[in-house]
Task: inverse folding
């Protein structure tokens, strides 16, 4: 497979056209950003840890019948994916109160949310990813009611699989974000599932094992990403 023209360069990933119809290459770069890009750095190896964990979870979920965009890894940082029509939604599943939920609402950090909460934000940095509701999604024509129902169902299914898998590693899945895309009439999980898009707490020590280490200067980001990816992928 040949990598061709750069189609899109996001904050931490680049997307390239390929010589294979219907397939793209996503490169996981070593950039890391937080707070709408207000904080940014380049951390060697960060891209390959996120690529490895994302590939692992996509393959894991496919085993349970969840459709993802993952095709294969080309090398440590480059993933071949199905070319989807991406839906500009950030679908967040929350099992425990943390992050923006605690900042914006009177939840105490660490409160278990039973059942889990699905929150959907509009993927638009210039507007700071505002929270949507079903009516706004419909009025903006972002997804049909049937698609939205399917997206929420898949998000909760992914949550069950990830919660169970991570619990066996003594890791609490606090929350995570998914993005979805259309391939024909099918909805696929796209983007990434990594330490950048999940909030993970060590069950024993309570320590953060994700991008919160970077956001809030909690320690050595790369050492954490390395340890977590080893724990997940081996
Ligand atoms: O910041 P907030 O608490 O809303 O984030 C919830 C979850 O979604 C976290 O795991 C965070 O890493 C993820 N997220 C993301 N990309 C965003 C916003 C949130 O991956 N743009």
Result:
């Amino acid at each position: 497979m040949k990598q061709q023209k750069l189609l899109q360069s996001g904050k931490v990933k680049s997307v390239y056209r390929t010589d294979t119809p219907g397939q793209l290459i996503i490169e996981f770069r070593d950039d890391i950003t937080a707070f709408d890009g207000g904080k940014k750095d380049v951390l060697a190896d960060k891209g390959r840890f996120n690529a490895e964990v994302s590939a692992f979870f996509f393959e894991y979920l496919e085993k349970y019948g969840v459709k993802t965009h993952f095709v294969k890894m080309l090398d440590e940082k480059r993933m071949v994916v199905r070319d989807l029509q991406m839906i500009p939604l950030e679908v967040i599943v929350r099992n425990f109160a943390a992050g923006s939920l605690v900042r914006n609402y009177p939840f105490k950090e660490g409160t278990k949310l039973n059942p889990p909460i699905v929150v959907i934000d509009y993927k638009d940095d210039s507007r700071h990813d505002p929270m949507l509701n079903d009516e706004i999604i419909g009025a903006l024509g972002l997804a049909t009611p049937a698609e939205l129902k399917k997206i929420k169902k898949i998000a909760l299914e992914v949550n069950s699989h990830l919660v169970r898998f991570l619990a066996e590693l003594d890791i609490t899945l606090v929350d995570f974000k998914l993005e979805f895309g259309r391939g024909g009439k099918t909805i696929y999980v796209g983007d990434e599932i990594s330490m950048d898009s999940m909030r993970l707490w060590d069950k024993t020590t309570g320590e953060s094992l994700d991008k919160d280490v970077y956001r809030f200067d909690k320690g050595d980001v790369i050492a954490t990403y390395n340890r977590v990816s080893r724990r997940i992928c081996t």
